[in-house]
Amino acid sequence: MIAASFRDCQAWKAEGLPLSTTSNEACKMYDAIITQYVQWRNDPTLGGIEGCIAAVQAADPDFVMGHVINTGLELVGTASSVERNERLASAVRRTVELAKTQEITPRERQHVRAMELFSRGALSKACNVWEEILVEHPTDMLALKFAHDGFFYLGYQTQMRDSVARVLPYYKPHTPLSSYLKGLYSFGLLETHFYEQAEKVAKEGLALAPNDAWCVHSVAHVHEMKAEVDKGLNFMQSTEKDWEGCDMLACHNYWHWALYHIEKGEYEAALKIYDSQVSRRCVSTGAMLDTVDACSLLYRLEMEGVSVKDRYREMLQVVEPHSEDHTLLFNDLHFLMVSLGGGATDCTHRLLDSLRERAREMYSTCCSCMLPSNLRTNTIRSMPGPYWWSGMPYGRTLPLLTA
Ligand SMILES: [Fe+2]
Predict the structure, then answer these.
(1) By mean pLDDT, which of 97-106, 181-190, 212-221, 365-374 is the weakest?
(2) Which of 15, 194, 320, 342 could form a disulfide with 189 if both were Cys (CB 3.0 to 4.6 A apart)?
(3) What is the mean pLDDT of residues 223-234?
């Protein structure tokens, strides 16, 4: 990508999405961050997302939307929370303070509010605010992507699909990043069981942008749901060169590839993908999506009777520092798989004790959880699954978790 091709102050204004900064460089780098977020790819020629965030801050340290996108992306990554990370908590406070002292647009103010709600775990409310932005500004890609990821974490499948469907008519072929809407829409379609339609839309997206890793991911899910294992294997193999460079999603796509092998009983092939891609990427990035994929793949292989004890112990090094984060219960469940699999009793107790404590806080404050209460309860109830699998009688696990 060429830095000069990104939108400057005037170009953003012309699209009805004015940004409150006089720095063209800040506007362009903000655009470059959104582009890489949508494409799931850190572009080394731009310095990756991190390099662009630094460039935005250097160009205009008080640019509110620069702070919003920086903090919002860290929250979306779910590897950190304001409760456990003072730097992140302080970044949220600084963004809110900056917004209070500046003349910014109502849209930017809504973005600040959504980010602040997200930081407090009120993700459902944050999604409502992003959706409100999209009513007035359907081509605000940042609001669309944050809402998409938010609905995904919440398990709000219909909302994820319809959020994209509502804005589709407003995107023209020349609108920046318009082809990537296909992948977003396709994923919503497959999550609501419209498999044929999902595959068709994803393939349309791939015809426009073969490196759209989210479209690839959507097709991978379709083949998984339809039990088309060989088709899935062929598809991943034939497209690998297009998406392997999408460093933020490639690991997850390899995880899907490994699942096909597990379903065929080809455990060595699945282990090869685990070692050469999933584990390697997880250890080098520390990204939470890569981490849960590695945990899950080991657990699935173990359930098939494959010995993965040593690999569990390696993964423990990655998981252990996050055992008290409790950013998403989905993550916690994966950490538990590895702490039990690796025989790390201390880590298991720390994870569950702090989770119980957090659950008490959630129930007492009622709305501060990222998950609705029924899902919250069900996920906590699912915790005994890995416990039982690790050898503890099921009847002894629930009291342990609900004590
Ligand atoms: Fe997936």
Answers:
(1) 365-374
(2) 194
(3) 98
Question: To 10 degrees, the CA torsion angle through 177, 182, 185, 186?
Answer: -150
Burial of 205 per CB tally in 10 Å (0-12, 13-18, 19+):
buried
pLDDT at residue 400, rounded to an integer: 53
pLDDT tens for each residue of 196-220:
999 999 999 999 999 999 999 999 9
Mark 324-357 as b/e (b = at least 16 C-beta within 10 Å). Answer: bbbbbbbbbbbbbbbbbbbebeebbeebbebbee
Q: What is the distance in A from the centroid of ligand 1 to the CA of 220? A: 8
When pLDDT is averaged across residues 96-108 and rounded to a whole number, the result is 97
| Strand, coil or helix: 4 | helix
Asked if 52 and 69 touch (Cβ cutoff 8 Å), the reply is no
Q: 41 CA to middle of ligand 1, Å?
A: 17
26, HSE (Cβ side, Cα atoms, 13 Å): 22
Confidence tier at 180 by pLDDT (50, 70, 90): very high
Q: How far is the CA of 67 from the centre of ligand 1 (A)?
A: 29
Rounded to the nearest angstrom, the distance between the alpha carbon of 391 and the centre of ligand 1 is: 29
CA of 256 to the centre of ligand 1 (A): 7
Identify the pLDDT of residue 366: 44
Give residue 7 CA to ligand 1 midpoint distance, Å: 32
* Distance between Cα 79 and ligand 1 center (Å): 18
Distance 26 CA to ligand 1 centre (A): 33
Separation of CA 347 and ligand 1 centre (Å): 27
**Ligand 1 center to 233 CA (angstroms):** 15
- Ligand 1 centroid distance, CA of 80 (Å): 21
Decide: helix, strand or coil at residue 227. Answer: coil
Read off the tokens for 225. Answer: 């749901």
CA 154 to ligand 1 centroid distance, Å: 15
Q: Exposed, middle or buried by CB within 10 Å (0-12, 13-18, 19+), for 54?
A: middle
Query: What pLDDT does residue 377 have?
Result: 56
